[in-house]
Amino acid sequence: MKYIVNGRIMLPDAVVDGRVLAFDRRIQGIVERAPEGAEVYDAKGLWVAPGQIDLHCHGFKGMNASHASYDELREMSRELLKYGVTAWLPTTMTLAWDRLEACFAAIRWAMSDSQKPGWRGAQVLGCHAEGPFISPNRKGAQDEAYILPPDIEKLRPWRDVVRLMTIAPEVPGALPFIRQARKLGVTLSMGHTDATYDQAKAGIEAGITHATHLFNAMPPLHHREPGAVGAALEDNRVYCELIADTFHVSPALYPMLSKLAARRLVLITDSIEAAGMPDGEYDQMGQKIIVDGIHCRFPDGTIAGSSLTMNNALRNFSLNSELSSWQLVNMATLQPARAIGMDDRKGALLRGRDADITIADSGFNIHKVFVGGMLVYEGN
Questions:
Q1: Poorest-confidence range of 161-175, 231-245, 267-281?
Q2: Dihedrals φ, ψ of 284, to 5°?
Q3: Per-residue pLDDT tens digits for 353-368
Q4: pTM of this prediction?
Q5: In sequence order, which residues have a C-beta less than 8 Å from that of residue 279 and are 6 or more positions away?
Q6: Please, which residues have CB within 8 angstroms of residue 112's CB and are 6 or more apart in sequence?
Q7: What mean pLDDT comes out for the span 233-237?
Q8: DSSP 8-state assignment for residue 138
Q9: For 178-197, what is the mean pLDDT?
Q10: Helix, strand or coil, per DSSP, at residue 198
Q11: DSSP 224-260
Q12: Which of 371, 311, 324 is nearest to 346 (CA)?
C-alpha cells in the first residue's frame, strides 16, 4: 500500500484537508494517517487530484494520431503525463477509410499495452473518430474529399476501439446510424454539423450524448434558431466539450457556461502535432499550419486545432470563472470519464477506482503523476 500525505485531496464534491490518500493499483480510501514504515509521498500542501482525461487530442510534439505508429502513440502518451493527463483518446481526422482503419489498428494495440505496467504513460482508452460522417458545410480543417455517408458496417469491426465518434446528425442516414452505433457501445457526439435545433434534438433523441468542441464547427447560437449549440446546452443528457484556450471560445462566456452546464462541461485540448513545439510553420498531413501562440491556422485563416495542454485549459477556466477547485477538476477528470461511460474506473479518487493521481499546485503546474498506482512522472 502507498500513501500521499499533506495534500489537499480533491473529491467529486469537496476538498479534504488533513487526511491521507491510500492506494495500490486502485484507490483504497482516505485514512487518518499512514502506518509506520509505509511507502509515503509528501504532497507538501499541494492539490492531490485524479488524473486528467483528454477526449480530443490529435497530436503532440510533432506526432499525429492520424498517422501515428504504435511507437509514436506510446511516446505521445509519455509526453502527456507532463501536463497531468493520465488517460486519453487519440483523435483521428476525416481520412480515407483504409487509412482510418490503419489508425484504429495501431490504437487497438496501444489500448492493450497501455494497461500494462511497462507502458509508463497515459492510458489509451480508445479512439475518438472525428468524422468521416460529418457535414461538408462545417468541415473546418477536415478534408472534404474523405467525408462519407454514415455506414454502420464500417464501424462494426472497430467497435472495441472507437469509444467516441463525431457525426453530423442532419446528414442522410445519420439517425439510424446513431441508434445502431449506440447499441455497439459507441458514444456519439454531434460536431462538424450544420444542424438546426430540431435536427440536433432529433440526434439527441436517437442517442447522441456529447457535443464536439462546442461553438466550433457548428452554427452560432441565434435567438430564433438555437442550432446545435442551443440543443446541447439545453439538454442535460449532453456533455459539452470546450477548448478553453481563450481563442476558440471567448473567456467572457466561461461564467455563463458554468451556470448553464458546469456538471456537463468537458475540457479538451483539440491539440495538433505542433502542440508543445515553438511557434512557426508546420506540415500537418501535407497542409501548412502556422502556429502563433494560441493560434493555429491554415494560410487562408481557417482554424486548425490548438496548441493547448490540459493543465493550461484548467488554468484558463479557473482565471475566468468562479467555480470551486473541485468543480474545476471535475471538468477534466470525472466529467470526461462519465461522458464515455468509464466513471466506474476513472475520474475520481474514490475507493475502487484506478489510482490515476496527480499532485499539482493551484496554478495547475504538475509535480507528480501516478498511473495505476505507479509513479510515472516527477516535475520540478
A1: 267-281
A2: -120, 100
A3: 999 999 999 999 999 9
A4: 0.96
A5: 291, 292, 293
A6: none
A7: 97
A8: G
A9: 98
A10: helix
A11: S--HHHHHHHH-TT-EEEEE-SSSSS-GGGHHHHHHH
A12: 371
Q: Where are the domains of the chain?
A: 51-346
* Beta strand 8-11 pairing with 14-16: antiparallel
Which of the four pLDDT bands, split at 50, 70 and 90, describes residue 18? very high
Sheet holding 14-16, edge to edge: 14-16, 8-11, 47-50, 357-360, 366-371, 374-378
Please answer whether residues 81 and 122 qualify as being in contact, where contact means their C-beta atoms are separated by less than 8 angstroms. yes
**Coil, strand, or helix at residue 197?**
helix
Is the distance from CB of 237 to CB of 209 less than 8 angstroms? yes
Class of domain 51-346 (CATH, top level) = alpha beta
CA distances to 58, 183, 212, 289 from 302, in Å: 17, 36, 17, 10
Question: Residue 157 is placed in which grid cell?
Answer: 469491426
In one-letter notation, the amino acid at residue 166 is: T
270 catalytic, yes or no?
A: yes
Q: Which three cell numbers, joined as nine digits, stand for 277?
A: 513545439
39-60 CB burial, b ≥16 within 10 A, e <16: eebebeebbbbbbbbbbbbbbb
147, three cell numbers: 467525408
| Catalytic option among 194, 245, 270, 356 | 270
According to DSSP, the β-strands at 287-292 and 27-31 are unpaired
Nearest Cα residue to 348 out of 336, 360, 340: 336
Does pLDDT of 287 surpass 80?
Answer: no
